Amino acid sequence: xxxxxxxxxxxxxxxxxxxxxxxxxxxxxxxxxxxxxxxxxxxxxxxxxxxxxxxxxxxxxxxxxxxxxxxxxxxxxxxxxxxxxxxxxxxxxxxxxxxxxxxxxxxxxxxxxxxxxxxxxxxxxxxxxxxxxxxxxxxxxxxxxxxxxxxxxxxxxxxxxxxxxxxxxxxxxxxxxxxxxxxxxxxxxxxxxxxxxxxxxxxxxxxxxxxxxxxxxxxxxxxxxxxxxxxxxxxxxxxxxxxxxxxxxxxxxxxxxxxxxxxx
Length: 264
Ligand SMILES: [Zn+2]
Hints:
Elements: E1 9-12, E2 17-21, E3 33-37, E4 41-45, E5 49-53, H1 63-67, H2 69-73, H3 84-90, E6 98-102, H4 108-111, E7 121-125, H5 128-133, H6 145-151, E8 155-159, E9 165-166, E10 173-177, E11 186-191, E12 197-200, H7 208-213, H8 223-238, E13 242-245, H9 250-256
The protein binds zinc ion.
Zinc ion binds next to loops.
């Protein structure tokens, strides 16, 4: 099979925004409030249609009714027009057109839109579903039961730790195994139409400093595993013609979104 395929389009959809103390994002930092996008990426492949990577939050228009005190704690900003279904409609698609969903992990700020994709083929890291149902105590609040119920309605392919999965067999979309933040954390490697490579980190990194310093965050399920995954991202970042975008990094987000939703 040829390994020289590219994606056709990439959209970084209008994201809900949160505010968190930097201590949540990297061990040893703190005392600084940082804006954090909670993005979803829509990818179009010429032959294989639409794939979405992560689904952001639920409760567009009224996040307080969905997340209660968390909405205020994280200063969640999520206007109604940023709901995934409305954004897809504005691009001329419907949620039913999305044939595949890749979830970086099951924390609530990635799973809020899973309810829209019950008919899609899912890709999830091995061990993630089990961990979400019986998480470590210090991250229990990061999983939302309604999202896990929505996850149960998706037909998941489990991507084993240590294995990177070439979704279409042409090198255009590769699911990266990046365990450590959670047992099944994933990233996504895309080959763009100009031949360059764009890596979406998922949450094993929350800011570029996680990668530069190979230091994770307090919420990681496996600190040593996270360091190994950060080393992998650092190696990828060092390759020519390759950009690693950290999903929650506000500077990366602003660069990626410099021309609006459509990246390519
Ligand atoms: Zn997370």
